[in-house]
Amino acid sequence: MTDAKPDPILAEALKSLEIPEATPESQLLELPHLLLQLLFQSRYLRLGRMIHIVGEQSSLKTTLSLEIARWHVANGGYAVTLHTEGRVSEELAAGVLGEYKDRHIFVVCDSLEAWQRRLLQTVEYFSQRDIKNVCIILDSVLGCNAQEAIDATLKSGCASPRFGLEARLVSDFLRSFIVILQKQPFTFCVINHRKFRPNPITPYYGAVKSFLGGAELGFYASYDLELKRIEAKSTLGSGMTCTLSIRTEKNTYGTPNIEIQVPVQFTNDGQLRVIFQWDEALAVFLAEGKGVKPEPSRSILNTIKELIGLNMRSGGRYGRIFWSSVLGIPYENAVPASKIVEELFKRPETIATLQRLLGIK
């Protein structure tokens, strides 16, 4: 794949992963939750594809990329983060990945060329060992400059204007890399920063959304996810819960512009734990039709209500609790979202009907 001399930093990091002789064939990764299937409009995530994660500062881009990595490693795969932005967050990775943290490594890259070279060698490393279901995260695409720009800055003692050097290098690289990626059962997650630039045509009508690295990044991605942190509640000593909006600006294999809202809980009792509360978000949607855009039609919501009969009420310090006579859980014995979703998934015919109603292929 590449004749470049093996990178010693990457080689040393990869040695820490205990790789078996081979893993089972797989070109699809089953999405681990019905709400995610609704977002992607499919039961499966296609491997050999690029996911472009875009958002403003503190919109949980890295956190979501690690959650995507968790889907892979929980199914016997591995994850590698090529990190270009300052200090790596090993605590965050361990908090998201939990028991699977040893199947993930960080590799620090100090130039744009370094992450490109190490990305190719990572793909080659796993493909030579016939390893499937690998998630490679680039955090982030322009977290470091091209070596040419670094050398020029060191020589002159200050930065100078550049004319799209990094964007051109990224575009040229991806044009070749995507062809390589599509032949491998891997996922490539690219983290990028949302930017707003003046509208050159009608400057008085608001800014234009853009992102770093050139517009072609969006072209090469099969999935383009826009993130926004819309709410955050914290209590001293007990952690924080954020509500994260995830929207598919692009979905090559399903309907785009679908948005879901999911609570993300951060707790630290000596060890950080990060939990995406997919069950909670799904239960609220099934009970009240909230947290998903565009909203389903009234007829679909009525059909879901008749099918499941899910209701929601406050459980005091336990938060929201749910009950359903259809599922055999009475009002007085209302349960948390995890229990109601567990009960729901004991009914595969009901799940199949829900998937059909929600356009999940």
Description:
The chain is α/β, with parallel strands linked by helices and 361 residues long. The chain folds into two domains: 8-276, Rossmann fold (3-Layer(aba) Sandwich), CATH 3.40.50.300; 283-357, no CATH class. The chain has twelve helices and 15 strands. β9 and β10 form a beta hairpin. The longest helix has 17 residues, at 112-128.
Number of strand segments = 15
Fourth-level CATH superfamily of the largest domain: P-loop containing nucleotide triphosphate hydrolases
Q: What structural class do you assign from the helix and strand content?
A: alpha/beta
The CATH topology of the largest domain is Rossmann fold
**Arithmetic mean of pLDDT:** 88
Tell me which CATH architecture of the largest domain applies here.
3-Layer(aba) Sandwich
| Uncertain parts | none
Distance between the termini: 35 Å
Put simply, the count of helices is 12
Helix content: 25-40%
Q: What is the domain tally?
A: 2
CATH class of the largest domain: Alpha Beta
- Strand/helix succession: HEHEEHEHEHEHHEEHEEEEHEHEEHH
| Estimated radius of gyration | 22 Å
Morphology call = globular
- Into which percentage range does the β-strand content fall? 25-35%
How would a crystallographer describe the biggest sheet? 11 strands, mixed
